């Protein structure tokens, strides 16, 4: 598992991370999210033992990164965003090199390499130079290198950047397959990718924790903009707007004589909102041919959570 507890990191007078705490459960895939400058890269570098916290503690697989960084690093596989690969080596040669760096027993190296080559879908390119690989295969090679010593914890920093949709989908499935065997911290700006891949999300901003939980839980925390899309006849917008929990009502006439009604509501108001709206339309003799709840994208939810935290911090 991963534990970050009351961590601060300062660079001179600048505070990059402030009182940050979160936990990633063993065997889970956790999305690590935040806007640019949120402190994600600094936190990842501290977990990777590249830099030390100013104060607070971080642990990898139960090992304190400050007290025993060598042991912590032995339990950590890391795929950085840049994914630097030596162009003069083949995939197999590079994985042999990484095994030597990890200190994998010589007797185990071939089986370890064969295992990750198969798992990461590299069989057809194992003898190719890394410089000749496509972006997708380069990412797979980087992930194979992070997994070759079977670390307890894997950190992936923006692994899907630059991948085409088909390759990104396959890479997403590969990351999901790590669940249970490894604890994965997965940093990404692609929120749809994160929602489809991760069990748990950690959102930070300004170096501080903003929210943590499942995608559903974070939607509930930031859901002021959930809405119904309704197509109806004979209704009263004022009656709909008076329903408890409704935040805003907008209407638009459709070409066939029906009206499109967009109703924004507070998701915490409960299921009674839809019932009350339907009853209000029926009371006027109206008809409904479409009544659909539309959840806002995670980008909108996260922007709202970040903005709310900033507003609270400025008071």
What would you note in describing this structure?
- This protein has 315 residues and is α/β, with parallel strands linked by helices.
- The protein contains 11 helices and 14 strands.
- It has helices at residues 40-47, 69-74, 91-102, 106-119, 135-147, 165-176, 191-197, 215-222, 237-241, 272-283, 298-313; strands at residues 2-11, 14-24, 29-33, 55-60, 63-64, 76-79, 153-157, 183-187, 200-205, 208-213, 226-232, 246-253, 259-265, 288-294.
- The strands form 3 sheets. The protein has a 6-stranded mixed beta sheet, sandwiched between helices. A 4-stranded antiparallel beta sheet has the order 2-1-4-5. It has a 4-stranded antiparallel beta sheet with strand order 12-13-11-14.
- The protein is elongated.
Topology:
Elements: E1 2-11, E2 14-24, E3 29-33, H1 40-47, E4 55-60, E5 63-64, H2 69-74, E6 76-79, H3 91-102, H4 106-119, H5 135-147, E7 153-157, H6 165-176, E8 183-187, H7 191-197, E9 200-205, E10 208-213, H8 215-222, E11 226-232, H9 237-241, E12 246-253, E13 259-265, H10 272-283, E14 288-294, H11 298-313
Parallel strand pairs: 3-8, 3-9, 6-7, 7-8
Antiparallel strand pairs: 1-2, 1-4, 4-5, 9-10, 11-13, 11-14, 12-13
């Amino acid at each position: 598992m991963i534990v970050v507890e009351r961590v601060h990191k300062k660079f001179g007078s600048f505070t990059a991370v402030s009182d940050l705490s979160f936990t990633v459960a063993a065997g889970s895939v956790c999305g690590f999210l935040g806007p640019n400058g949120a402190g994600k890269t600094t936190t990842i570098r501290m977990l990777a033992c590249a830099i030390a916290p100013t104060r607070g503690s971080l642990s990898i697989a139960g090992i304190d990164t400050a007290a025993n960084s060598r042991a912590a690093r032995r339990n950590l596989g890391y795929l950085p965003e840049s994914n630097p690969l030596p162009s003069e080596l083949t995939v197999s040669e590079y994985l042999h090199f990484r095994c030597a760096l990890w200190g994998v027993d010589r007797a185990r190296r071939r089986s370890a390499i064969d295992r990750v080559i198969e798992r990461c879908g590299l069989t057809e390119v194992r003898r190719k130079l890394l410089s000749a690989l496509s972006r997708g295969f380069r990412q797979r090679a980087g992930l194979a290198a992070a997994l070759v010593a079977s670390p307890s914890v894997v950190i992936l920093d923006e692994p899907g950047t630059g991948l085409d949709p088909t390759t990104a989908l396959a890479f997403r499935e590969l990351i999901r397959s790590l669940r249970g065997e490894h604890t994965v911290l997965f940093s990404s700006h692609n929120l749809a990718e994160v929602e489809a891949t991760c069990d748990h999300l950690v959102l930070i901003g300004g170096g501080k924790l903003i929210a943590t939980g499942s995608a559903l839980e974070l939607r509930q925390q930031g859901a002021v903009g959930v809405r119904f899309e309704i197509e109806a006849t004979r209704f009263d917008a004022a009656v709909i707007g008076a329903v408890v929990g409704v935040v805003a009502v907008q209407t638009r006439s459709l070409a066939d004589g029906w009206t499109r009604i967009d109703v924004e509501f507070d998701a915490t108001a409960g299921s009674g909102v839809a019932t009350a709206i339907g009853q209000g339309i029926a009371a006027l003799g109206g008809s409904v041919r479409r009544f659909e709840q539309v959840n806002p994208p995670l980008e909108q939810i996260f922007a709202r959570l970040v903005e709310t935290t900033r507003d609270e911090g400025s008071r």
